[in-house]
Specification:
The chain has 156 residues and is of the alpha+beta class. The protein is 28% helix and 24% strand. The chain has a single domain, classed as Peptide methionine sulphoxide reductase MsrA (Peptide Methionine Sulfoxide Reductase, Chain A, 2-Layer Sandwich). The strands form 2 sheets. It has a 6-stranded mixed sheet, covered by helices on one side. The chain has a two-stranded antiparallel ribbon with strand order 4-5. The longest helix is centred in the C-terminal third of the chain and has 16 residues.
Length: 156
């Protein structure tokens, strides 16, 4: 099965999902924009409409989509519009790109549940939940970046 999430810098996002049992592969790239075959340099102009995303291949008998959603919500701040920490721009927006109706329902239900909880205080969750458009794989040097550099994001 496939899942796609935008939660800020795709290096950070990929590192989170790579560590989850049941995830068989990850790839970083771009989704949701207006330009065909965008490059990192294109997306960084904040003019293409793309989000930096991680696309996850997973085994649903080993990890559920809901468990992936929990990792997504816990690994970033879904209340900041077009921003994660020091990274600012539309490419850093919080987004769930669903691949089927079940994923859409699960994402919307979890977003609603979290909004009604105290998890993010009174801050409004701005995460977009939208059908997955074409995925444009990022350049090779971005793939598994933290692993290549001997770095790792702190556990969420």
């Amino acid at each position: 099965m496939k899942a796609t999430f935008g939660s800020g810098c795709f290096w950070c996002s990929e590192d989170v999902f790579m560590k989850i049992n049941g995830v068989s592969s990850t790839a970083v790239g771009y989704m949701g924009g207006r330009l065909e075959n965008p490059t990192y340099e294109d997306v960084c102009t904040d003019k293409t409409g793309h989000a930096e995303v991680v696309q996850v291949e997973y085994n649903p008998s080993a990890v559920s989509y809901e468990e992936l959603l929990v990792a997504f919500w816990e690994s970033h701040d879904p209340t900041t519009l077009n921003r994660q920490g020091p990274d600012i721009g539309e490419q850093y927006r919080s987004a769930v790109f669903f691949h089927n109706e079940d994923q859409e329902k699960a994402a919307r239900a979890m977003k609603e549940k979290l909004q009604g909880s105290e998890r993010f205080g009174k801050n409004k969750i701005v995460t977009e939940i939208t059908p997955a458009p074409k995925f444009w794989k990022a350049e090779d040097y971005h793939q598994k970046y933290y692993a290549k550099c001997g770095m790792s994001r702190l556990q969420f």
